[in-house]
Amino acid sequence: MTAVSLDFGDDGLVPVVAQDVETGDVVMLAYANEEAVAKTRETGRAHYYSRSRDELWEKGATSGHTQAVEEVRVDCDGDALLYRIDQTGGACHTGYRSCFYRTLDGEEVGERVFDPDDVYE
Amino acid sequence: MTAVSLDFGDDGLVPVVAQDVETGDVVMLAYANEEAVAKTRETGRAHYYSRSRDELWEKGATSGHTQAVEEVRVDCDGDALLYRIDQTGGACHTGYRSCFYRTLDGEEVGERVFDPDDVYE
Question: Which of B100, B101, B107 to mutate against chain A (most A CBs within 10 Å)?
Answer without folding.
Answer: B100
